[in-house]
Write a structure and sequence with these properties.
single chain; mainly beta; 6 strands; 53% strand; globular
Length: 79
């Protein structure tokens, strides 16, 4: 397994569905730690799951493109 994978985080308050690609560090199975983009600014974009969150991701077909999408917060390892 690689050190990081591209995951997609839904942006809130955009008026339409917008997905931000960022890096996720695999923790186990379907859980990833959300990492910030180089230009992450919480005043400019409101991420559904901000950097540092532990999320559950699954692959989804979005307009013919498979994306690893953050769907929900996950419990911490051992928790």
């Amino acid at each position: 397994m690689s050190d990081t994978l591209t995951i997609y985080i839904r942006l809130l308050d955009e008026g339409t569905d917008v997905w931000r690609p960022t890096q996720g560090r695999p923790v186990d199975r379907d859980r990833y730690e959300v990492l910030p983009t180089a230009d992450y600014d919480p005043e400019e974009e409101v991420w559904e799951f901000p950097p540092g969150s532990l999320v559950i991701c699954h692959e989804h077909d979005r307009s013919g493109h498979w994306m690893l999408v953050a769907e929900a917060l996950a419990e911490s390892p051992g928790g």
